[in-house]
Design goal:
The protein is α/β, with parallel strands linked by helices and 775 residues long. It is built from 38 helices and 14 strands. A six-stranded mixed β-sheet has the order 6-11-7-10-9-8. The relative contact order is 0.06. The mean pLDDT is 90.
């Protein structure tokens, strides 16, 4: 349970005699916890002088009510009273002190001060008390009272005025949380993001403003300009491109530049550890931040409409908020959170495209910055900073990045770059999945060495991570689990159960401790989580029919599918034959059953059969015979869409034309084809299959990917050219949009190359190209 804010009552026993109970009752009613030396639960220690103990405990409360009335109090060895020592200790430790001075005592201080200290007080018993009053009288929180009733009335207002102070304390805690985030920036050193910034390892990323004006002085200045103008801004980009790091760098820079003025207050919000309920109101969001950052209940006097509050919010990983993406989007549209304060929001492109399709959201953001792939100059700069002084390593890495197109492509993504730099040898790495595999093996070796563990079976660690990733995935895309329940994911005799508490396993997990509860929200980077899900899918496809069926019934998204494709591309003929048999069994086992998850399993089984047929000559005949057979038999339009696409990509004679003809005569199949593209490329991430496109919503990701496919010249892409053109045209027609100049150029390039295509598709291709250009 989170703790209440603690308010201590400090003053001499006799001065507090008529005030203590009244003050305590008022504070407890408002939701505070009180601490006073005569409380039954006051934490005395046997054998420790009570006066010394009370000074030591002055750092414990959040607020100290320093009551100065008639008596200075007993003195300690330093000749200062216990009360004054308590005050100094609290002040030195950033405890908010509210000096409560009786009016009579303040009047005598004024008289004493006017005479230069020659006048002797009559009410106050010691001149040193007047000197103490002189030290505290300039406090913003000074409270002057006549009696207990007057004190209680004023105290409520004074506690309310402490809200900015408490929000600043909260902000500092959230900012430290951001700086403490673990990073994959290097593997042989255990660095936080704060370390990365402090050691100048951070390279300002390239970016393009999709909307709004740039300052011309970099991303952090654009962020500062937006927030200073009370405008909102988004940082977006592909997975692993550095969105969170850029946001946290901007947060730290902004906090440093405004520290002297103490306003505005920058709050870091890590959405990975939040639920959709936390976004319903400003109060619910701030309450969650107090719990996660300070293990406290909300500051009782917090009021989001307080005119003295100036807040800026930094929302990290909004697309990883725990909950259904559609629900999160609805909350963004309707919750007062998004109107409360200017903010910077980091999210992936697919989440951005869905959010901006909602007019209530799109008009809220004046600047949108998209981080771009790193250029060779950015890559060189990172290598020079990362390996400063190591001339040979810098020369070797620069040469590799400059001369290998595959490696350079992987390095254009920041996570890919830092993973590559962590490996001793990456000559065998030819796709992102292989890079992640090599990186995780290196990570296991490093963490085992750090923990002084003999690592005899690294595969056991990988298998455990895969299962954790998988279990979190099937609980919901952003499902979280309590750390204590982690072993329960595995059977009693499962070897993986034994290693769940290993520091190696724990090192890769994103864990948040709230009070006594430890929660796992995922892995230290979302792309690692996605890779592990894909690795588990591929592993299950190579297993039993029941394992494969379970994997195929789960609706994965674009990034996971891409990793799965790259991993399965390494299967040999024997693997392909084994998996094909399993897939055919899964399809037959689920034939005739119309539950959504079963239809999805058949759909994905056909998708993978098509891939195997193209990948392995040893199974192509059986795979394509199967696709031709089920094309004639399958009644579900959702599954037929997958079969039709698989047959087209495989280049089966007449398959693409046959598929298009059926879509033109079947509105449901046509809608499912577009819906499947939207889901596959992430524009409708989170939608429940079967997918249908109703002609609404963003299709930015899909549009970009379709155009990229039309540019590519691989056999599979050329085989699907006719279907891709048809799909692009139907999107344009349904949304009443026109082709862009870039799209027109790509399509004209296809028309100029028609002679290179088989005779039977030249005419349909030409017709479809002209239809698209005519839009």
């Amino acid at each position: 349970m989170p703790r209440q804010f603690v308010v201590s009552l400090v003053g001499t026993k006799d001065d507090l005699v008529d005030l203590r109970e009244v003050i305590k009752e008022s504070l407890i009613t408002k939701g505070y916890s009180t601490l006073a030396f005569d409380d039954p639960g006051y934490p005395y220690m046997p054998g420790v002088d009570p006066a010394k103990r009370s000074v030591d405990l002055a750092t414990l409360p959040d607020v100290m009510l320093l009551v100065l009335d008639k008596r200075y109090g007993s003195r300690q060895a330093n000749r200062l009273s216990v009360t004054e020592n308590e005050w100094q200790r609290a002040t030195d430790n950033n405890v908010a002190v509210v000096p409560c001075v009786r009016n009579k005592a303040l009047e005598e201080f004024n008289q004493w001060s006017k005479t230069g200290g020659t006048w002797l007080p009559r009410y106050v018993d010691d001149v040193d008390l007047l000197k103490l009053i002189g030290q505290v009288r300039s406090s913003t929180y000074l409270l002057v009272f006549d009696d207990a009733v007057d004190l209680v009335v004023q105290l409520d207002k004074k506690m309310r005025s402490l809200t900015p102070f408490m929000l600043r304390r909260l902000a500092q805690a959230t900012q430290q949380t951001a700086r403490n985030k673990r990073t994959v920036t290097v593997i042989d050193q255990y660095l936080s993001l704060g370390d990365v910034f402090d050691r100048s390892l951070y390279v300002t990323p390239p970016y393009a403003l999709l909307s709004g004006k740039t300052s011309g002085h970099g991303l952090e200045q654009d962020v500062a300009n937006s927030l200073e103008s009370h405008q909102n801004m988004i940082v977006t980009g592909a997975p692993g491109i550095g969105k969170s790091t850029a946001l946290i760098s901007s947060l730290c820079g902004r906090a440093a530049s405004t520290a002297a003025q103490s306003v505005p207050i920058q709050l870091y919000v890590d959405c990975q550890f939040l639920s959709t309920n936390d976004f319903v109101t400003v109060e619910s969001l701030v309450a969650r931040l107090f719990v996660t950052a300070l293990d406290k209940t909300t500051w009782p006097h917090f009021d989001p409409n307080d005119p003295n509050l100036r807040v800026e919010l930094f929302f990290d990983a909004m697309d990883e908020a725990i909950g259904d993406p559609a629900t999160v989007q609805n909350l963004m549209a309707g919750s007062p959170v998004w109107h409360w304060a200017p903010h910077l929001l980091a999210c992936r492109r697919d989440f951005l495209s869905r959010a901006l399709a909602e007019p209530r959201i799109s008009g809220r953001y004046q600047r949108i910055a998209e981080l771009q792939p790193w250029t060779i100059d950015h890559i060189r700069l990172y290598v020079e900073r990362r390996f400063v002084g190591d001339v040979d390593t810098v020369r070797r890495l620069k040469s590799t990045f400059e001369n290998s197109e595959i490696v350079r492509r992987l390095a254009s993504n920041v996570v890919g770059l830092v993973m590559l730099c962590s490996l001793d040898d990456f000559t065998s790495v030819d796709n992102a999945a292989m890079l992640y595999q090599a990186f995780l093996e290196k990570w296991i070796d490093r963490e085992a060495h750090r923990a002084n563990i003999s690592m005899k079976d690294p595969e056991l660690m990988l298998a455990t991570w895969r299962e954790i990733a998988w279990q979190m995935f099937i609980r919901g895309r952003n499902g979280s689990i309590e750390s204590s329940s982690l072993p329960d994911m595995f059977g009693r005799f499962d070897e993986r159960r034994r290693v769940t508490g290993s520091p190696v396993i724990q090192s890769l997990l994103a864990i948040k401790t709230i009070g006594n509860q430890s929660v796992i929200a995922g892995f230290i980077h979302a792309s690692i989580h996605e890779y592990l899900i894909a690795a588990e899918v591929v592993q299950r496809l190579k297993g039993s029919v029941s394992d494969a069926a379970e994997a195929l019934k789960q609706d994965t998204w674009y990034e996971v599918n891409e990793f799965a494709q790259e991993l399965s591309s390494k299967w040999n003929d024997a693997d392909c034959l084994s998996v094909l048999k399993v897939l055919l069994d899964v399809y037959q086992m689920n034939l005739g059953v119309n539950r959504p998850e079963v239809i999805l399993a058949r759909n994905k089984a056909c998708y993978y059969v098509g891939r195997l047929g193209r990948q392995s000559a040893g199974v192509s005949a059986d795979a394509f015979d199967f696709l031709n057979k089920v094309w004639q038999q399958e009644r579900s339009a959702f599954v037929r869409q997958s079969i039709g696409f698989a047959r087209s990509i495989a280049g089966l004679p007449g398959a693409a034309k046959e598929f298009i003809d059926e879509m033109q005569n079947d509105k449901e199949l046509d809608s499912l084809n577009r819906g499947y593209h939207l889901a596959y490329y992430g524009d409708t991430k989170g939608q429940v299959p079967p997918y249908r496109d109703l002609g609404e919503g963003s299709w930015q990701q899909t549009r970009r990917e379709l155009v990229n496919r039309l540019r590519q010249q691989s056999a599979a892409k050329r085989n699907s050219r006719l279907v891709d053109l048809y799909t692009l045209r139907r999107f344009l027609e349904d949304r009443i949009e026109t082709t862009t100049e870039e799209e027109g150029a790509v399509i004209k390039a296809i028309m100029s190359d028609l002679a290179s295509y088989p005779i039977e598709v030249r005419s349909p291709l030409d017709t479809e190209c002209r239809r698209v250009i005519a839009r």
